[in-house]
């Protein structure tokens, strides 16, 4: 069960009874935690200088954070002496209680992962709902899942440093939907919340999974919908209006079916799970796996056509962006992994013949919680992948 | 005529007689100049601390730079006192002699622009050569042009801070071609040289011309070839292997003509100047302008088809990158400016209908020296557009 302390702090924030003094102190706490998150262990004197607080005020803040277990004394630095002449204590985030939560609020399920400050995943879970579930009920399902995960794992969320929430669909900066979700999570957890497209978060997670030095990645996800994300020059790309990575609505077939977006022949009408099942006259993704395993010619031909369409779209993107890795993921790829090699061959053929080094095309490494993992990664500010990326909204606005 | 001093320093560098001591001093000079370029005016003490030189060594260096006119005393800072107790002098680059040179070495002409340290263009020029001219002769033409510009403008190139050289065609990092050009310029001018694709430099210049806050720009140039460049999240994009922006080789028509790259139906086979002239059965770009002005139906239909193809390619790129501005430039657009509005309408129609704010599509603002201007801009390190961009190769390698 979530602890009494958690509920007290939660109620304090949501009930509206919280006073100005508490708000100011909470803002100071955030600055201290944020500094320790970015810089690692520091002495009180170093913290006081950097956040611009008096030693007395800072002592109150660090005392409260130590009492709550959000920070710990990790060392004493014999070089740096406190006012009294004794060695200065170094304070740091408690790796066991400074947590980061990633939430992927999809069309029909929510996935949650929680990492400690050392970036270890300490809890994860999933909960399903019907595809048409209203936002309020999706949020309630997410909160119930998070509470259950807390009970099962012993995680208290007391020192939650931030929540990253991935949502399906494009997330233009400042959209109403992202505002609702951000408000709900920041009221619930009194922590900074970063909301973005869930596939973009997945792209970030895949870029990190692809290796430390990978600075240019195209990621496309073939699932119920088709989305994607880009890491360019070592940074996750949101685009000017927050809707970069719309691979699903690039035209794959000008005489194709009408897409849910209103256009005709979008990649999503060719290479999404529903489009493929329709073309193969199959009911489920498991049926598709079985048909491919059995050498069903309709399934095989359809998947070849899908891979060609995906490869052409990715080739255009690769000509523009010259990535190092192209990652293809999603449910369709798990059911029909041959898509990756065939799309890769198309990309290879479409690149300029004398164009030099080629991108590597690979299947996604992470599973269904890629979005939740990427949401956590997006909260780790020191990641160079996120330099210049929009800041999380503060919880105290 | 270039001064005796210039030729002395030039010969000193190219003749191979330069000793180790001179090389070391030149490296120190570079570090001092680079510091002043980035930080503005500093005292000798501040410079000594930051470059890690003794006061005595630094005095020799600054004495030489002052004598050469590369730096000047701009002020005395009454707050900072030199060792003797008198006010410390602040040194800075001389805005009249700290120069940056941009060179655009195209298929059939070289353009050069020179800016002073305040980013004012103080000289520019162009020189033509035949399209098949070998590299050594192109370089000779460039050097002759630069010498003539020096005679005409009085610019001595004595305090050249860097040379940016744009080359036609993709420029994979470390290519032989870019190595030859970089070596030739750094030997000639004893200054750092940055070599990149000339169209990418033009994209940088257009992004800067598009306004200070424009952080996401797609630029495509329709000329003898088709190239492009990207600014993503405020930074110029080279791609993993230095070949980003290859809009010209995106397939526009799968059943189209064979391209010089070996593929079929590349945008370049549809929307480059030679392709358009061939389709219209015209000899020169001036003929095309005249035909459009006279309402020639073949010319009008061809340009409509070209604009549609360009618009579709840009729409795909915009779905992926979600830019703020899309800029279309090049000789073809100057002859047929209607391309911009029509391609813009195609982009508008191809974006996701409910996709929120739209990019602005506009014609390029700069003329034929966009590549040279962008090469200069690329040398101004403080530009946030170039954060993280590859460093210029030092002249003393």
TrEMBL record, chains A, B:
Gene3D superfamilies in alphabetical order: 3.30.420.40, Winged helix-like DNA-binding domain superfamily/Winged helix DNA-binding domain
Organismal lineage: Bacteria, Bacillati, Actinomycetota, Actinomycetes, Micromonosporales
Organism superkingdom: Bacteria
Name used for this protein in its record: Transcriptional regulator
UniProt cross-references to InterPro entries, sorted A to Z: ATPase_NBD, ROK, ROK_cs, WH-like_DNA-bd_sf, WH_DNA-bd_sf
Similarity-based family: Belongs to the ROK (NagC/XylR) family.
Organism from which the protein derives: Winogradskya humida
Pfam families, per database record: HTH_24 (PF13412), ROK (PF00480)
């Amino acid at each position: 069960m979530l602890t009494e302390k958690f509920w007290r702090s939660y109620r304090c924030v949501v009930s509206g009874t919280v006073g100005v003094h508490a708000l100011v102190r909470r803002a100071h706490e955030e600055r201290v935690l944020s500094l320790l998150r970015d810089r690692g262990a520091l002495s009180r004197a170093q913290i006081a200088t950097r956040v611009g607080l008096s030693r007395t005020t800072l002592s109150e803040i660090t005392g409260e954070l130590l009492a709550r277990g959000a920070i710990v004394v990790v060392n004493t630095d014999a070089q740096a002496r406190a006012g009294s002449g004794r060695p200065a204590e170094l304070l740091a985030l408690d790796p066991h209680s400074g947590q980061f939560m990633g939430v992927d609020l999809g069309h029909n399920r929510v996935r949650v992962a929680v990492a400690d400050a050392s970036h270890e995943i300490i809890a994860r879970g999933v909960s399903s709902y019907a595809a048409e579930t209203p936002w309020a009920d999706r949020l309630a399902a997410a909160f119930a899942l998070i509470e259950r995960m807390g009970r099962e794992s012993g995680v208290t969320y007391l020192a939650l440093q931030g929540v990253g929430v991935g949502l399906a669909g494009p997330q233009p900066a400042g959209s109403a939907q992202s505002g609702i979700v951000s408000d709900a999570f920041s009221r619930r957890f009194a922590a900074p919340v970063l909301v973005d497209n869930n596939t973009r978060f997945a792209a970030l997670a895949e870029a990190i999974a692809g290796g430390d030095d990978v600075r240019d990645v195209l990621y496309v996800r073939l699932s119920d919908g088709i989305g994607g994300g880009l890491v360019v020059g070592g940074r996750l790309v949101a685009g000017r209006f927050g809707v970069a990575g719309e691979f699903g609505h690039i035209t794959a077939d000008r005489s194709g079916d009408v897409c849910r977006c209103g256009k005709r022949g979008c990649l999503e009408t060719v290479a999404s799970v529903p489009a493929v099942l329709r073309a193969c006259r199959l009911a489920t993704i498991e049926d598709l796996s079985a048909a491919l395993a059995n050498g069903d010619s309709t399934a095989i031909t359809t998947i070849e056509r899908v891979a060609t369409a995906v490869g052409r779209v990715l080739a255009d993107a690769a000509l523009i962006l010259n990535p190092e890795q192209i990652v293809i993921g999603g449910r369709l790829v798990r059911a029909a992994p041959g898509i990756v090699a065939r799309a890769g061959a198309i990309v290879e053929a479409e690149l300029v013949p004398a164009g030099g080094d080629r991108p590597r095309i690979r299947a996604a490494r992470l599973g269904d919680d890629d979005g939740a993992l990427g949401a956590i990664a997006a909260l780790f500010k020191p990641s160079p992948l996120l330099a210049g990326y929009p800041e999380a909204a503060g919880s105290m606005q």
